[in-house]
Amino acid sequence: SPIAICTWGFSDATKRAGELLAEGKSALDAIIAGVAVEEENVENTTVGIGATPDREGNVTLDGCVMSPDGDCGAVVAVENIVNVAALARKVMEDTPHVILAGKGAEAFAYEQGFTKEKLLTAERKKAWQDWLKTSDYKPEINIENHDTIGMLAIDAAGDIAGACTTSGLGYKMK
């Protein structure tokens, strides 16, 4: 039967993907919608809107997808776009490229109808400003215990797709 799984305890994301799979949607459609739940969750400080910024106070996001056919697409260092996994899908399906980065990825997003969003929330800005007082950057991995959501799904046809979306390490170097 169809199934969706994801990293960490993102039960709402998995539930959304599972609902779409139950409706007969493709694994690729299900994972894009599933990870979008966390990309749009302002309480999640490691993905999408409300994510922890880099050292300069900018929220930059990365996303990637892989289709059942083994095709893939990715975007890195994207600002102002919430749903970077969906944008990575557009790279995969609508360009001859595998990866777009930074301003080029952002420009492509606008061409595809994505809207510009302010990703840095007041709470994350304050936390960043507090961090700046000491700039206590240590090469520690998983300070917040996670830094991404990865999701895999198998649909009714037996096709497998995957996606990953993240803001990366908080206060990372640009």
Strands side by side in the biggest sheet: 1-5-6-2-3-4
The span between the termini is 43 Å
Pattern of helices and strands: EHHEEHEHHEE
The mean pLDDT is 93
Assembly type of the shown chains? single chain
- Residue fraction in strands: 15-25%
Extract low-pLDDT stretches.
none
User: Roughly how many Å is the radius of gyration?
Assistant: 16 Å
**Anisotropy-based shape:** globular
Count of DSSP H/I helices: 5
Largest sheet, in brief, is: 6 strands, mixed
Helix content: 25-40%
Structural class call reads alpha+beta
Number of beta strands: 6
Topology record:
Layout: E1 3-6, H1 11-22, H2 27-39, E2 61-66, E3 72-78, H3 84-94, E4 99-101, H4 102-111, H5 122-134, E5 149-154, E6 160-166
Written overview of the protein:
The chain is an alpha+beta fold and about 170 residues long. The protein is built from five helices and six strands. The chain has helices spanning about 10-20, 25-40, 85-95, 100-110, 120-135, and strands at about 5, 60-65, 70-80, 100, 150-155, 160-165. The protein has a six-stranded mixed sheet. The longest helix has 13 residues, at about 25-40. The model has no long low-confidence stretch (mean pLDDT about 95).
